[in-house]
């Protein structure tokens, strides 16, 4: 019966198929009519809105009415919220120009603010300009020897370091719109408008967007384009005001058809610009040729591509670099291309200096704001030194061991290294090697120049906003030296003499080695604290992460840990956690700890170093602090002689200490530095016969530095600074 009803229904549908077809056709037609009507209505509304927005003389009552073609009444239609004019002036010319420009902008009914660079803290405030829809104008003068004026010195210094610091990244100032007018004198041809050009380049490197090409005023009336620097400025000002009005109306800059090499920078080419920015290619090579205001210079053209022609490279990488060099050789002119190479072939031993031509070959290293010393050493001002100068807290060594971060010098007597670690934040711009084959500088010269360069960098903070006068004075006397800047310090043949010199100057020594030179570790004289980097716990993972040059790297690694266990002074394992690489080897790590018997174990999450052809690490490989804590807790359970002692949350770092440093229930991980200096002097005076141990120069650890404290390792005497517009995490060491 059911089957019969089913067939009856099918027959009924077939007999009435005409009505069904008609109903479906009517529904489709109705849907098409509704869609057409809706689209047409939206188009009319959009055209009406555009007409009203683009016409300053729109009828009264229109919501989008403009005032002088610059500002709209609806918040969502405000393209420019105001203008902020920064000036760096020595004689008052830039200041006068800033006030004149402000008056002109005020006549356009736009808010305007004039700011002296000396009264502005870029570290605190510049990133806050990115979401404000404010146009930033920089009027900067070039002073003696191509340096910024006194009032602009700190602003330019910070901008330079941020542009070369991977922790800020290429999008730190994304959204900031700016224009630069430089003031200079072409009589000083070698330094003409250097500051303006640098400010322009550094802003662009941090992701800011130019609203027009940089302009340059010339005090030399014979070479000035308009007869005087005042006339140069007036010509630029007129063009700037015109561009500003166009931006207020929401207009995009049209292509002039005069693009250099036919490479247009119109909005449709933004993806091309983004890729250039990622490769580090200078926009100056492709910038739009804007008639009277186009500028160019040899030092601006040709930033690094495919590793850069002035980078420090390895022999196996020379093929790609030389291919690139052949294409660029005409553009280089008479500039020589010199490389530091890895000495793995006997025929290359004729190269004697680690960096052959410092002004050229050292650019890859100095771009990280190092100060190169001689032919193989370097010094750099740590960001924690700057932080503590301003009362914003010290590094994890301050929390764990009581160093004064503002009195710490970060240096190295050897830029060369025996590893090519995937997380190296120098992106392998330093040379690599398995033994010392270079010309050697004397340790006295290295130390003298290191201290001199360090003090000169400290002096630049005089007058900087927020810097504490007492700490600035203290910082001029170096008290600690972290031999961990780059490379392998223990490779330096005179490392013992260098360490002795540090101690003779009452400077404590924190030496880091990559555990590939066991004999050198055994022969090393006492240092305040000796570190070994334990980046992995198995042969396979160590090869993947550290990429060592030695074929017998694993045996060297184990022998180095055994050599460490023989030391009587303080020893430390440094574990750098890389998610998906080395965080699942707890038992193997515990076995290595029993082998080397370190006094302390520092466990730190890897710091993201930015994109690099030398590494495929991403932010996904950076562990959260909670993940580091969990790893440390699980590791501590496997090593009964150790406990978690300290924490520095800001550096994503924890300290595991041997229980022998827990005296009468209190942790004593800090160092009595005066006592250490006494002990090491007695040791040297006795010819090495009088020894001492790590227990002889300990000091009590304050409660705020302990694991589980409310401060989580931040010194309560300082004030932690939190960025209001923190687009990315730039913490780390």
From TrEMBL:
Residues 290-303 have a biased composition (Acidic residues). It catalyses: N(1)-methylguanosine(37) in tRNA(Phe) + pyruvate + S-adenosyl-L-methionine = 4-demethylwyosine(37) in tRNA(Phe) + 5'-deoxyadenosine + L-methionine + CO2 + H2O. Keywords: 4Fe-4S, Iron, Iron-sulfur, Lyase, Membrane, Metal-binding, Nucleotide-binding, S-adenosyl-L-methionine, Transmembrane, Transmembrane helix, tRNA processing. The chain crosses the membrane at residues 14-34. One of its GO terms (molecular function) is 4 iron, 4 sulfur cluster binding. Its EC number is 4.1.3.44. Probable component of the wybutosine biosynthesis pathway. Wybutosine is a hyper modified guanosine with a tricyclic base found at the 3'-position adjacent to the anticodon of eukaryotic phenylalanine tRNA. Catalyzes the condensation of N-methylguanine with 2 carbon atoms from pyruvate to form the tricyclic 4-demethylwyosine, an intermediate in wybutosine biosynthesis. This is S-adenosyl-L-methionine-dependent tRNA 4-demethylwyosine synthase TYW1.
